[in-house]
Specification:
It is built from ten helices and 20 strands. By secondary structure, it is α+β, with helices and mostly antiparallel strands. Helix 1 packs parallel to helix 8 and helix 8 runs antiparallel to helix 9.
C-alpha cells in the first residue's frame, strides 16, 4: 500500500518545538478551542466535514452568562453584544398571551455580563470563524479524520483527502453524532427523551424584549427569544413524532397550525411561517459519556461527550465550559498525559451531569403532566451552581 502523503510539519513532536493539536469539527466548541489554543502559541489544525463551514440557516441560540464568560475570552463578546439581543428577563404567559409570571434571570457569568443574549446562530458562527481565521490556524473544509494510529508520544491521523499528519493531541469536537467518539471506541450514544421541537426565525414584534414561554395549549411549550433588533427565534415543543410526518415541504404550514390558539405576540409571529426551508424539526436527546472522555491522546469536547434538551438553554454553555477547562489544562501543564485528561473529565463530569439531568427532568415533568413539580426550585439550584467557575 502506498504511503499517505504528509504535510511539512507532520513530524513535530511535543518534546521538541511547538506542540500540535488537531481539532475535529468547526462548530462552537471546536472554533472556540482553536482560538484559545492558538492564543497560547500552540500550532492548531482544524478540519470540518462541511465544505461551507456554516451554521444552520435561520436558527437561533440563547447564550447564558456562563457561555458569554467563555466567549469573552475567545474575543467575540463585543460582536455578540452588537448583533444579538440582551433580553430583559423571562416571562411565563397563559395561552392567550396574559403574563402569569415575570422575573429577572440569574447572571451565571457574573454581574458584569448579561444574564443571556439571544442571537442568530449563523451570525455567532461567523464571528467565531473570523476569530479562527485571524488566529492563524490551518483550516481545511470538506475534510474528515478517517483513522487514528496512536503511540505513547502522539497520534498519526489519516484524512479523507489522503493526507496524514502527526499530532500531540486530537480534540473531537464533531458534535452529537461524533465520528471521533466512534473511532476511539466509546460506545455511548444519544437517546431520545420523547420530545420534539419546531424552530424558525421571525420578525420581532414591537414590545417583545424578553424570552417568553407558554406551557400548555396545543404544544408542551410555545416560546420565543429576541435575537436582534428585528428578529426573534421561535420554538414549539411537542411529543416526539415520526419525522416523515409531515413532509418537509409542509413544515411552515405545520408550525403555523401548531401556533394557532396562542395569543399575544404569536398573532403576529405565526404570519412569518411561510418558508418551509426556514423551519427545522428535531428531537430532544439525552447524551452523557459517564466514563473517560479520552482514549490515549484523543479527547472529546462538547456535544461529542454530552448533550441535553434545551429546557435550561445550557447546551452551548456546557460545551464552551469544556473548552475553557481543557484549554486551561493544556496551556498550563508541561506534561500532556493521561492524568491531565483524567482531570479534565473529573472537573467537567459532575457539573455536566447536573445540567443534563435537570434539563431532562424538566421535560419529563411536562411529558408526564406533573402539575405540582417544583420547577422553580430545580432551576434555581442548577443556575445558582453554574455561577461558580467550572
Amino acid at each position: 500500500m502506498a504511503e499517505s502523503p504528509t504535510l511539512p510539519h507532520s513530524r513535530l513532536r511535543s518534546s521538541g518545538g511547538t506542540r500540535i493539536v488537531l481539532v475535529v469539527g468547526g462548530g462552537i466548541s471546536g472554533n472556540a478551542l482553536t482560538v484559545l489554543l492558538r492564543r497560547a502559541g500552540l500550532t492548531v489544525d482544524l478540519v470540518e466535514a462541511s465544505p461551507d463551514w456554516k451554521a444552520a440557516a435561520g436558527s437561533g441560540i440563547t447564550l447564558q452568562g456562563n457561555a458569554l464568560r467563555v466567549l469573552r475570552e475567545v474575543g467575540v463578546l463585543e460582536g455578540i453584544e452588537k448583533d444579538g439581543y440582551a433580553a430583559e428577563g423571562v416571562a411565563v404567559l397563559a395561552p392567550d398571551g396574559t403574563v402569569l409570571h415575570a422575573q429577572d434571570e440569574l447572571r451565571t457569568g457574573g454581574d458584569d455580563l448579561p444574564a443571556h443574549i439571544g442571537m442568530q446562530r449563523p451570525r455567532l458562527q461567523q464571528l467565531l470563524i473570523d476569530q479562527v481565521r485571524a488566529s492563524g490556524a490551518d483550516v481545511r473544509l470538506g475534510t474528515k479524520a478517517t483513522a487514528f494510529q496512536q503511540d505513547g508520544e502522539g497520534v498519526d491521523v489519516t484524512f479523507s483527502d489522503g493526507t496524514s499528519r502527526r499530532y500531540d493531541l486530537v480534540a473531537g469536537a464533531d458534535g452529537l453524532h461524533s465520528a471521533t467518539r466512534e473511532m476511539i471506541g466509546i460506545t455511548d450514544r444519544p437517546e431520545p427523551t420523547g420530545m420534539g421541537i419546531w424552530r424558525a426565525p421571525a420578525p420581532r414584534p414591537a414590545g417583545v424584549r424578553r424570552t417568553e414561554m407558554i406551557y400548555g395549549g396545543r404544544c408542551l411549550i410555545a416560546g420565543y427569544c429576541p435575537t436582534g433588533e428585528d428578529t426573534v427565534y421561535t420554538y414549539l415543543v411537542e411529543r416526539l413524532r415520526d419525522r416523515s410526518s409531515p413532509a418537509p415541504d409542509a413544515y411552515a404550514d405545520e408550525m403555523r397550525a401548531l401556533s394557532e390558539g396562542y395569543g399575544g405576540a404569536w398573532e403576529e409571529i405565526r404570519t412569518a411561517f411561510t418558508e418551509p426551508k426556514a423551519v427545522n424539526y428535531t428531537r430532544f436527546d439525552r447524551h452523557l459519556v459517564e466514563g473517560p472522555w479520552h482514549r490515549g491522546r484523543v479527547v472529546l469536547v462538547g456535544d461529542a461527550a454530552h448533550a441535553c434538551p434545551p429546557t435550561l438553554a445550557q447546551g452551548a454553555a456546557m460545551s464552551l465550559e469544556d473548552v475553557q477547562v481543557l484549554a486551561e489544562l493544556l496551556t498550563g501543564r508541561s506534561e500532556w498525559d493521561d492524568q491531565l485528561l483524567t482531570e479534565y473529565h473529573a472537573r467537567r463530569l459532575p457539573r455536566v451531569r447536573m445540567v443534563v439531568d435537570a434539563s431532562v427532568q424538566l421535560g419529563q415533568w411536562l411529558l408526564d403532566g406533573v402539575r405540582d413539580a417544583d420547577v422553580p426550585a430545580l432551576m434555581g439550584r442548577t443556575m445558582n451552581a453554574l455561577k461558580e467557575l467550572p
